[in-house]
Amino acid sequence: MSGIPISQFAVFFLLLLTGFFCKKYGLFTDSAVSAINMFIINISYPCLILTRTVALDMDHQIFANFMLAFSINFGLLLLFGVYSWLYCRGGRFPGEDKPVAEFSMAAPNNGFMGFPVALTFFGDFGLLYMVACNISLNIYFFTYGVMLLKRGRGVPGEPILKKVLGMLKMLAHPKISAAVLGIILCYNNVVLPGIATDYLSGVGGIASPLAMISIGTMLAGNFGIHSFKRRVVMEPVANKLFAMPLISAAVVWFLPLDPLVKVILIIANTLPTATTVPILCDNYARNKGLSGEILVITTLLSIATVPFAVWILNLCHL
Predict the structure, then answer these.
(1) Sign of the CA dihedral running 283, 286, 292, 294
(2) What is the C-alpha to C-alpha distance for residues 33 and 37, in angstroms, rounded to an integer?
(3) pTM
(4) Most buried residue, 11, 64, 114, 263, by most Cβ within 10 Å?
(5) DSSP letters for 181-200
(6) Can you tell me the distance from the alpha carbon of 100 to that of 295, in angstroms, rounded to the nearest whole number?
């Protein structure tokens, strides 16, 4: 890792503020933010991933690193799930809020926020390994995450065929498809035509700033100072922003991995609660409000914690 210019942190902060004020003063409506998010997730990020991946100097080691980042991060997420269950057991939280607290503290925003952070501070290979982490997170969402949100509800198990079809549908998501296609093309030294490269670069290039602006709109949400006084909110927040990164660092620090893979695995789990968590909580009739409070506060505090983590890892010369 090379030195991290302070200006990059400042630009991130200004983009977040832009989103905050646009939402606060009505320049962005809820429907506008939703449309922007759909564009980023389904079009702009896939273009970014494809164009950056195709341009990489791919070899057997890079591909092995990608698979290691995917596998180890999935293992870390399962470890977080166990930790969260142990932390929330007993009478720490009301029964209905336990699954929400567990899910919120264990699932990081390593896609929507992770992609711009990885690309800005760690370059194209950082983005590639963050994509691997995001693929594992998506699998985690729709396997353990769904099981967690169904817990205690007496929901009958889904047929195996339906589970398989659901998994295939998830793997066909544009972000994942773009990553797979990019790796195949890069590995086989396929060069895209100039017009395709220019288009993908243009549409993908706006993904990171748009994502940070969109995240800034979350900070203008309906939460107040009372949220910071609620234990059911702040304990998951503290675990998400501090316990999970420390667990990640303890697991990967001494593993014989490429230094950049180590850094991305730690940073991926330093990020705030994923935006998918409230969506899934709403889908399964859980406390969406609680998950939203945790998401907003972890996002707000991550303005300080993520740059601090990047700075610390840079000092460690990983």
Answers:
(1) negative
(2) 6
(3) 0.85
(4) 114
(5) HHHHHHHTT----HHHHHHH
(6) 11
pLDDT tens-digit profile, the chain (318 residues)? 555 556 777 888 899 899 999 998 999 998 998 899 889 988 999 999 999 899 888 888 999 999 999 999 999 999 999 999 999 987 778 888 999 999 999 999 998 899 999 998 999 999 999 999 999 998 898 788 888 888 776 555 556 666 667 666 666 778 888 988 998 998 888 888 999 999 999 999 998 899 999 888 888 876 678 888 899 999 999 999 999 999 999 999 999 999 999 999 999 999 999 988 988 888 788 888 899 899 999 999 998 999 999 989 988 866
As to burial, measured by CB atoms within 10 angstroms (0-12 exposed, 13-18 middle, 19+ buried), residue 192 is middle
Q: What are the sequence ranges of the domains in the chain? A: 6-315
